[in-house]
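Progress report, Aim 2. The chain analyzed during this reporting quarter is listed below.
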Amino acid sequence: MNPDNIHYLNVFLGAGAIALQILSVITLFLLFFVYKKNSRNKFLDYVSKHFLVLSFLISFFASLFPLVYSEIIHFLPCVLCWWQRVFMFPSFFLFGIAFWTQDRKIVKYVAPLLSIGFLVSAYQNFFYYFGETTNTPCDASGVSCYQHLVSEFGGYISIPMLALTAFFALLTLLAVAHFYKKD
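Predicted structure tokens for the chain:
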């Protein structure tokens, strides 16, 4: 791929990640601070009703684009990126099966997987944005995300931030599926 196409892909994914972050925060705010047990919320109704397809789509794209970066663009993943893939790729298949069978009990099976992936991603993002590259678990001596292969929107969007956004959005959808009870 030529550099212009890579830049446009990065901007597209970055804008999508920012939109997903905003929607996730709004969803959590509505779920935990606005929602009352006896009231209804149309937005939360929609998210709860369609959480299987939304989760499937997010996990699909969160599994597809790391493969695009590594196999087509040839940005090799670092050790922490590989660990995040270990926790994201199976969730795509689990959500796919749950979507196919309309099994809403997927929450209890996939939540631990996504939670561990989220923690690995949060750890990587902490060191990526706030740590020194000399002491990081994924240093620049080999394959490393700290080489800033993707840096859009003033450096806010990076490969680690894209992964963190996907885990955060999926955990938000699971929270709605678990805590939001329709009458």
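The mean pLDDT is 84. The CA atoms of residues 98 and 106 lie 6 Å apart. These observations will guide the mutagenesis work planned for the next reporting period.
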